[in-house]
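> example.struct
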């Protein structure tokens, strides 16, 4: 029979694994949505982008605030290029 301490450690490990899986899923969703997001930015329709997604893109360093507006970072351009290459392949 596992001790309470072992059970707590297993529970923490399970929670950490779930949190990592959720973060990976969210990142993949954002990666797939990035080209459409860029189109919205280029057409000056940033208000149609969910605020939580904007925060996530900024946290990932795919978008950045610049002069009161959002713009794609170099990292964001690379992610878009990789997505386009994957879509073609």
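> example.seq
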């Amino acid at each position: 029979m596992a001790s309470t301490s072992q059970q707590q450690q297993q529970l923490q490990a399970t929670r950490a694994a779930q949190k990592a899986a959720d973060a990976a899923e969210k990142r993949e969703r954002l990666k797939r949505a990035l080209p459409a997001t860029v189109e919205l930015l280029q057409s000056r329709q940033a208000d149609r982008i969910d605020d939580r997604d904007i925060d996530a893109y900024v946290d990932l360093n795919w978008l950045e605030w610049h002069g009161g507006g959002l713009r794609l970072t170099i990292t964001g351009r690379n992610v878009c290029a990789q997505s386009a290459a994957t879509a073609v392949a």
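> remarks
The mean pLDDT is 90.
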